[in-house]
């Protein structure tokens, strides 16, 4: 009786140690592949925007190769579409960037910090109708098209790196994940290939706040559902709605100071949302099977 009761914790501890070891090994392989792939992506993207897609797929390719080399399989990311929890996130996925946009950009437009300008589009209607039409179009069609790139990023960031940071017992894995995601964007941002405001240092700081906050929100969704698909769709939805609608309707010399992913109002809207979500309890659903 006594020997059996002590053997259960020992097995559990051994399994946890093995999981930690394997996760750390996975992270080393992942970053060893990600860094050269990303470096090549930076060089190519700075020469032609067509290579931005390759850069976005660098994390995904690194995760796929790491899984193959380490024989980990893909059961932990739940590639099957249609889970009940994943389906329940769809309204949030579609509406989240709209709400953030209306709060941050709406504030900028109303206060006159940023000019509201209707861009030239194939839609010939009043400014309000054009905005609504473009918003609905990007929420559906734009999100669908954006999946081409967001799948590549999310397979790497939330599909691989985040869960291994957790299992490797890295302190503050959600925060570290967001910081790494933000740092990965900085080369193209500093080079001027990504939105940056009139004050580069401030833009970098605000962008890191935005990306770390958004990364926390996406990460929570990925862990709660046990699937990478909600993260993929939310990433695509954000890019389509914020970049192709709200940014397109915002102009003026201070537009990138107050709005955009390196803008003051967007950064604080995302930070406030992440803080609010962090106050809610979350039970992690994960079907990790690397041990």
TrEMBL record:
InterPro entries: MmRce1-like, Rce1/LyrA-like_dom
Biological processes, Gene Ontology terms: CAAX-box protein maturation; proteolysis
Domain of life: Bacteria
Record keyword Hydrolase present: yes
GO MF terms held by the record: endopeptidase activity; metallopeptidase activity
Membrane-traversing stretches: 27-44, 50-70, 90-108, 128-151, 172-192, 198-219, 226-243, 255-278
Entry keyword set: Hydrolase, Membrane, Metalloprotease, Protease, Transmembrane, Transmembrane helix
Domain CAAX prenyl protease 2/Lysostaphin resistance protein A-like: residue ranges: 139-241
The keyword Transferase belongs to this UniProt entry's keyword annotation: no
Listed name of the protein: CPBP family intramembrane metalloprotease
Origin species: Cohnella terricola
